[in-house]
């Protein structure tokens, strides 16, 4: 059906350990495994990538050009600071869903601005780790050109 790339930004490798009252108890491996299982069930290829380094994230996004059909991204703290990640995403010309485990719009003022949201196809915030699954469902639906609510 298609290939989907999931990009996880800085500190997301510490999920389950870092501020569980905000980010929950699931690890990044738990999230990636659930995404992989759902993608495989629907016949999609899925790859996940995490880095704490802005340049590595930019490099991986650029590498997706021409090789990926849809992208899910949680840029972490780079959401609020990285024009470089934004510019790399603009190169892709494919569906992009921005995900945040917490509701960035209800947090500190500096976390309320996203350099990604206005170029993303959609944004899912504040629904915990299930936001990733919802983003995956949305991307698969877009790539399948489905117009249903299933």
Automatic annotation (TrEMBL):
SUPFAM superfamilies: Type II 3-dehydroquinate dehydratase. Its EC number is 4.2.1.10. InterPro entries: DHquinase_II (IPR001874), DHquinase_II_CS (IPR018509), DHquinase_II_sf (IPR036441). Substrate binds at residues 74, 80, 87, 101-102, 111. It catalyses: 3-dehydroquinate = 3-dehydroshikimate + H2O. Signal peptide: none annotated. The active site is at 23 (proton acceptor), 100 (proton donor). Keywords: Amino-acid biosynthesis, Aromatic amino acid biosynthesis, Lyase. The keyword Transmembrane helix does not apply. Gene3D superfamilies: Dehydroquinase, class II (3.40.50.9100). Pathway: Metabolic intermediate biosynthesis; chorismate biosynthesis; chorismate from D-erythrose 4-phosphate and phosphoenolpyruvate: step 3/7. The record marks 18 as: Transition state stabilizer. GO terms for molecular function: 3-dehydroquinate dehydratase activity. It holds the Pfam family DHquinase_II. The keyword Lyase applies. CDD domains: DHQase_II (cd00466). Homododecamer. Belongs to the type-II 3-dehydroquinase family. Catalyzes a trans-dehydration via an enolate intermediate. This is 3-dehydroquinate dehydratase.
């Amino acid at each position: 059906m298609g290939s989907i790339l999931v990009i996880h930004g800085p500190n997301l490798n510490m999920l389950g350990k870092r501020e569980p009252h905000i980010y929950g108890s699931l690890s990044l491996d738990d999230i990636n495994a659930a995404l992989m299982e759902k993608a495989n069930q629907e016949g999609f290829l899925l790859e996940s990538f995490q880095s704490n380094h802005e340049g590595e994230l930019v490099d991986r996004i650029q590498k997706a050009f021409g090789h990926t059909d849809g992208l899910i991204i949680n840029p972490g703290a780079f959401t609020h600071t990285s024009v470089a990640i934004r510019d790399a995403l603009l190169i892709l010309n494919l569906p992009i869903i921005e995900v945040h485990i917490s509701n960035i719009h209800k947090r500190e003022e500096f976390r309320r601005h996203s350099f990604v949201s206005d170029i993303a196809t959609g944004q899912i915030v504040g629904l915990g780790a299930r936001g990733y699954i919802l983003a995956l469902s949305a991307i698969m639906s877009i790539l399948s050109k489905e117009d249903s609510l299933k």
